[in-house]
Structures are given as C-alpha cells and as structure tokens.
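#onboarding

Welcome to the new folks! Below is a worked example of what a typical request in this channel looks like: someone posts a single protein sequence, and someone else replies with the predicted structure as tokens. Don't worry about understanding the tokens yet, we'll cover that in week two.

Example request:
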Amino acid sequence: MIRHKHRYHRHEGLAQVYRKSRDAGYRRTYDSMCRQIRKMKLNTPKKRKSYPKSTYRRNLATYPGERVQIDIKYVPNECIGFASNHNRYYQITAIDEYSRKRYLELVNELSTYSTSNFLKRLEDNLGFKVELVQTDNGIEFVNDQDITNKKTRFEKYLEKLDIKHKRIRPYSPWQNGIVERSHRIDNELFYSRRRFGSYKQMKKSFIRYSKRYNNIARKILNFKTPNEIVKEYHSENAA
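Example response:
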C-alpha cells in the first residue's frame, strides 16, 4: 500500500502520502511509514542522468492530426471553493500542432486509466484522425524505461487506435512547448479569474471555456481560430 500511495502522491509530500495511506486503511504512525519508505528506498533521490546538449528543432506540422501534444495541468487549489473527497483535480489537454485546436477533460485521478479513457474521445472531439501523439515521460503516460519496458494502458490504447507515440527528451518540457503555452493561457483566461462554489459549477464553466477556446483567434494562426483553420484545410483538400 505504501509503495502505491508513495508513487502517486510523493510529489505532494510525505504528509499527503500518509493521509492517503490512512484513508486506505493504514493504521501505523507517520514515523513508522517513513521508516518503511526508507527501508524500501522509495525516497532516495535518483541520480539525474546527463544528456547531450539538445539540438531539438521542431518540424512544423503541415495538416491537422499530424502531431498532437498531450499534457496534464494541475487545477489550482485556489479555484476550489467547495468541499471535495478528491485532493486534486487535473486537466488533460490535447492540442493539435497545426491548427492549435484543443480537446480538454477535467479528471480527479492522475493515472494511465484517466489518460487512456481520454484517448477514447480524442479524435471525435478534435474532428480529424490523429497520426501521432507526443507526451512527456510522466507515469500517467509511460513507465520508467530504467525499470521496465512493459507498456502502459495509455500506450496500449494508442496502439489500438493506430496512433503513433513519441516521448519527448527527459527534462525538456520545451519540446512540448505548444501545450505548455496553452496551459499558461488557461491560467490567465480561466483559472485566475474564478473560484468555484461547487463541482457542478466548475465542470460547467470548464466545458464552456474549452469550447470557447477553439473559437478564439490566434496571432500564430494569422488571426484565425483553430476551428477555422481545420475547416479551411478540409475545404481546400476535399476529394
């Protein structure tokens, strides 16, 4: 149990790991849990690998669906003005590099279960076939290759959909820069302006905002909207 809770909550601190363990039935003290973590060597910082200097240059996408970046954003706690059984909420974001069209979902669990379910609705909501998905190396997408080569639920579902998968270089978030920048926009346009009084209110506002985003003109798109770019491409390339 401790190993499982530590894996999913270590980024929030050992106090949170202990709280989640207690909620799941753990009855020993906090100090006892910490001793177990030390024995299992779970809290030993991994030696950071060195990598050659990046020469990364992003090739521009030439059509919708050629390359879609997916990432996770933590919903700021400052927005949550209601009591909840869930410690955190997360935004799963997919953004098409060519059109900048996005599909978003709000979830309460950071796992490959959530991200694989997200894939089930991805293409229908974007409105076109996705050829390649690009993600970072988070455990909500992939396993640590130093530990196992076993594919995650997320990776298996990509294969089922016949979608290629590309991992970005470790410690190189700029390689997923388009989705990272879109998250900064979300903070400015959505999260920093709201405090939700209920989950229902948050979900309703989130859906409305996510749809609105695809109808906002962008300078990078020559002042067109993502939806207009997709429609324009399909009109020009109709069989």
